[in-house]
Design a protein that fits this description.
- The protein is α+β, with helices and mostly antiparallel strands.
- The protein folds into four domains: 117 residues, no CATH class; 90 residues, Beta Barrel (Elongation Factor Tu (Ef-tu), domain 3), CATH 2.40.30; 62 residues, RNA polymerase II/Efflux pump adaptor protein, barrel-sandwich hybrid domain (OB fold (Dihydrolipoamide Acetyltransferase, E2P)); 76 residues, Helix Hairpins (Orthogonal Bundle).
- The protein contains six helices and 19 strands.
- The strands form four sheets. Strands 2-11-14-13-12-15 form a six-stranded antiparallel barrel.
- Strand 16 and strand 17 form a beta hairpin.
Length: 410
């Protein structure tokens, strides 16, 4: 090989080695690859947030009448049964009238006796008036006969009142429907004895109109602040799991119910039941819609609950010391010097308008490090929370939880 060619080859080899070394040096000077995030995150986006209050209630007729009996007796006729549609005044059952008829005859006999006594007293009084005018008897005797006449008249009134009561008992032995409606409950059978001595027995329950129902619910005291008359609601029942029904809040009852130091309030909702699919006594799972906002900046609600672990705080402190840069937020969480809380430092503090709350969340920066951010939130439910203000925009990744540490292979 010629000498010139060997020199050219040597020069090319040196250049290649130098180029490779330079490329390796330049590669070493490039920024290191972004480390894998140690946190699970979700992207902040825009969408609709609906805030609801959940409750469990019972479906009942709007008007439910208990039909009882004012008198005692044995049922001799039963003319109504479950699910029967009845009209006002329709006979539902009859009690044995034997005793009531006997009482009427007894009182009538007493009335006749009182009337006879009055006629005798009237005749004696009129005769004594003539004898007194002729000076055959004293005026005292006349006064006594007048008293006997007054007593006889009073006895007649007493007998008439007793007769009216006996007649009323006979009339009450026939139980009639007080309203138009549907019988949903019957607690009496033919031949059974009704005892009304101390309390009025409930013989029937009549629902006035099953096309209009109501839901009686109990709402926690933490949720009642967002409720008002007319609040829309939706509910489901076990009988129709694939269908939702509409309702609206009609009444918030002020009487509190306290059970084991838990305070709840009764809330009544109106329900249209034109198809009569809903039956009295069904259990309803209710969601009252207290707020709805479309196209708002939102983040997962889980991001509000995330806090750095002690190990993560310690790691960041060591990194801060190495870089000679302090991280005020991490020091606060690590228990170092904590300044006096301001009016918007945490969820317990609210701003002056009392309409927004301040939370501390974490978002991932370009190095997949968790960076603390203060945000004001609005509506919230179990999935999403509205962000009103703060250093957060659509597309930012917010931390929802820490990733589990990988397990060592055995």
């Amino acid at each position: 090989m010629p000498l010139f060619t060997k020199r050219r080859a040597a020069v090319l080899l040196v250049l290649l080695v130098a180029g490779g070394a330079g490329a390796a040096w330049m590669q070493s000077k490039k920024e290191p690859a972004i480390p894998e995030a140690r946190f699970q995150s979700a992207v902040a986006d825009k969408g609709t947030i609906t805030q609801t209050v959940t409750a469990t209630g019972t479906i009942n007729p709007v008007a439910l009448i208990n039909v009882g009996s004012q008198v005692s007796g044995t049922v001799v006729e039963l003319k109504a049964d479950f699910n029967d549609h009845v009209k006002k005044g329709q006979v539902l059952l009859k009690l044995d009238p034997t005793i009531f008829n006997a009482q009427i005859r007894q009182v009538e006999a007493g009335l006749a006796s009182a009337q006879a006594s009055m006629r005798l007293a009237q005749a004696n009084y009129e005769r004594n008036q003539r004898l007194v005018a002729q000076n055959y008897i004293s005026s005292l005797t006349l006064d006594q006969s007048r008293r006997e006449l007054d007593v006889a008249k009073a006895n007649i009134k007493l007998s008439e009142a007793q007769l009216a009561r006996a007649q009323a008992d006979l009339d009450n032995s026939v139980i009639r429907a007080p309203i138009d409606g549907v019988i949903i409950k019957r607690t009496i059978d033919l031949g059974q004895t009704v005892a009304a001595s101390f309390t009025t027995p409930n013989l029937f329950q009549i629902a006035k109109d099953l096309t209009k129902m109501q839901i009686d619910t109990s709402v926690s005291e933490a949720d009642v602040g967002a409720l008002k008359d007319g609040t829309p609601a939706r509910f489901v029942v076990d009988a129709y799991p694939d269908r939702e029904f509409d309702a609206s809040m009609r009444q918030f009852r002020l009487a509190a119910n306290v059970v084991q130091n838990v305070v709840t309030y009764n809330v009544v909702l109106d329900v249209e039941n034109k198809d009569e699919l809903l039956k009295p006594g069904m259990t309803a799972q209710v969601r009252l819609v207290t707020g709805n906002r479309p196209d708002v900046l939102r983040i997962p609600t889980a991001a509000l609950r995330f806090r750095l672990s002690d190990e993560e705080i310690e790691r960041r402190q060591k990194k801060d010391k190495k870089d000679k840069k302090g991280d005020k937020d991490d020091k606060e969480q690590a228990g170092t010097t904590v300044p006096a809380p301001g009016p918007e430092d945490d969820v317990a503090f609210r701003n002056k308008s009392e309409t927004t709350r301040v939370f501390k969340i974490y978002k991932l920066d370009d190095k997949n490090e968790a960076k603390p951010v203060d945000v004001k939130i609005g509506l919230s439910n179990f999935r999403f929370t509205e962000v009103l203000s703060g250093d957060l925009k659509v597309g930012d990744k917010v931390v929802t939880r820490a990733k589990s540490a990988p397990k060592n292979d055995l």
